[in-house]
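Observation: inputs received (chain + FE2/S2 (inorganic) cluster).
Thought: call the complex predictor directly.
Action: predict_structure
Action Input:
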Amino acid sequence: MTDEREITLTVNGTEHTVEVEPRRLLVHAIREDLDLTGTHIGCDTGNCGACTVLKDGEPIKSCLMFAAQADGAEILTVEGMEDLPEADGIHPLQEGFREEHGLQCGYCTPGMLMSGKALLDEDPDPDEETIRDAISGNLCRCTGYQNIVRSIEYAADELADRAAADGGAVAARTGESTADAGPDGGTAQTPSPEGGHEPPAVGGDADTFCGREDCCGGPSGADPFDREALLDDAEDGNGDAAVDADDRGDSV
Ligand code: FES
Ligand code: FES
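Observation:
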């Protein structure tokens, strides 16, 4: 007799309903039922941290929890990081691991990223000791940890720079859903007081460009491929790349 029960997991912003046996581990549900194999299994006994995911914002070892215990929870796995509001193509933590060579074989990396994410959500400017403490449940057999610490420091600096450049709006948005953040993850949605256009609705017209470096892709009439006009515009700040192109005798 099967004793399966239906549970609901919201993973990386998408709600899933799955049938699981009571003894099914969350990591197996994530990997096998949802086919999200970025979450790794290194030991299945709670020692290595390779299976770390965020459950309702808290890092947990998904091999130590039954899937049924996570019924109704919000789960974040490594696959969802690039869609977070603070990501810009890839998440600053992923960028940090790339720039600072924070991985060798990469087996521990998804778990490290999730522990790093939980840390930076809690403490945006951690010192080295705090970082080492935060990843103390994640084992790495390759790197010696030094570059992993640097990777997380890189991400903390990058997030701070982005927040400063964005007037704190990135930090404020980190609690919003990805869908609310817009097609670029919400990093370029501020209307320009110097003539930039209003931000478009989600999925707005990507074929137009107002000339701001952080253009959100809304309508302005400028040729999105006329880089010279766009650069002129960035200099004069009037948001009118079409006029700049006309000044040069080009048609837009
Ligand atoms: S697989 Fe979960 S801690 Fe190792
Ligand atoms: S990079 Fe190989 S286990 Fe960490």
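Thought: report the result.
Final Answer: Strands lie at 5-11, 14-20, 52-55, 58-61, 74-76. Residues 103-108, 140-143 surround FE2/S2 (inorganic) cluster (ligand 2) (CB under 6 Å).
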